[in-house]
Amino acid sequence: MTSDPVLSIRAASKTFGSRRALDAVSLDVGRGEMIALIGPSGSGKSTLLRSIDGLQTIDDGDKGEEGGVITAFGGPVQARGKVSDQVRKARIRIGFIAQQFNLVGRLSLFSNVALGSLGRIPFLQGLLGAWPEETRLAAMAALHRVGVAEYAAQRANTLSGGQQQRGAIARALVQKAKIILADEPVASLDPVSARKVMDILRDLNQTDGLTVVVTLHQVDYALRYCDRVVALKAGKKVYDGPASGLKREQLIDIYGPEFEDVFWEGAPQ
Predict the structure, then answer these.
(1) Would you give the DSSP letter of residue 116?
(2) Structure pTM?
(3) How many Cα atoms occupy the beta-carbon half-sphere of 74 within 13 Å?
(4) CB count, 10 Å around CB of 269?
(5) 255 vs 25: CA distance, rounded Å
(6) Confidence band (pLDDT; 50, 70, 90) for 266?
(7) Domain spans of the chain, in order of start
(8) How far apart are CA 21 and CA 157, in angstroms?
(9) Residues contacting residue 141 through CB under 8 Å, at least 6 positions apart
(10) Rounded to the nearest 5 degrees, what angle is found at the Cα of 132, between the Cα atoms of 127 and 135?
């Protein structure tokens, strides 16, 4: 990891009623890393990812002056329980990919992908679908890159889940994102589609140098595709290190003894 991280989280906590979803989590993400966020349901993975993009506010810092602060590209995203008024500058460079794709179903796949350029063109122009040539070319290039260009004219809600998710990745490419935050991007996909999506994310990381942070329920995907793994349990960070260093005993401690019953063949010993 570089000495100047592209993402920095300092003692981020989030409380929903009496439940502590995040408990003083600190994390630095270097340029060009591909990091898996793992942990059982309710461990805080999605809350952390949404907080990084400013979609979820974190609590006011309770660990001194350094607590409750998130920065991206050296600029503020949120601090002291408030989203920064400069967050838009960071969001333009961060692509967020959700489990449920977040495509506009009535629009064509092409139009959904072209929406990634809204941060750089006048809003009304985008609203009317009057895409400049640069956007049109970028959208088709992105669709080719993720392997769904033949569906460009098709309404998004008629596509399979895997096709829609690849469209969401293409939209992030048109956005010219430097960081991709992917929140359970393969949770609702069949195994073949899931592997295609993970292959694309890994290729964007390795070939284009994009920074990728992906939350995953599938621990085998985390170990196969990501060099670094961060594990959360009950809102606390309990592991942060190389995927190769995460052993069976640690995974059982993170997920509970039932994890042994569903452990896959070839898992770490």
Answers:
(1) G
(2) 0.91
(3) 3
(4) 6
(5) 19
(6) very low
(7) 1-89+213-263
(8) 33
(9) 173
(10) 90
**Cα distance between residue 38 and residue 219, in whole Å:** 7
Q: Say if residues 100 and 188 touch (Cβ distance below 8 Å).
A: yes
Sorting pLDDT into bands at 50, 70 and 90, what band is 51? very high
Query: What residues form DSSP beta bridges with 230?
Result: 37, 240
CATH number of 1-89+213-263: 3.40.50.300
> Which structure tokens are listed for 149?
């260009």
Tell me how far apart the alpha carbons of residues 225 and 206 are, in angstroms, rounded to a whole number: 11
Rounded CA separation 132/129 (Å): 9
State both tokens at 60: 């006011």
Structure token digits, residue 49: 């990812």
Question: pLDDT by residue (tens digit) across 57-86?
Answer: 999 865 454 668 999 999 999 988 899 988
Nearest-CA neighbor of 30 among 214, 209, 186? Answer: 209
- According to DSSP, the β-strands at 75-79 and 82-83 are antiparallel
Contact between 11 and 30 (Cβ < 8 Å)? no
State the virtual CA torsion across 210, 211, 213, 214 in degrees, nearest 10.
20
CA dihedral (13, 15, 21, 22) in degrees, to 10, reads 0
Query: Alpha helices, DSSP H only, in the chain?
Result: 45-52, 87-91, 109-114, 123-127, 133-146, 161-174, 191-208, 219-225, 248-255
Neighbouring CB atoms inside 10 A of 213's CB total 24
Share of the chain above pLDDT 90, in %: 72
CA dist 46 and 38 (Å) reads 10
Asked whether the predicted pLDDT for residue 227 surpasses 90, the reply is yes
Residue identified by tokens 């609702």 is 188
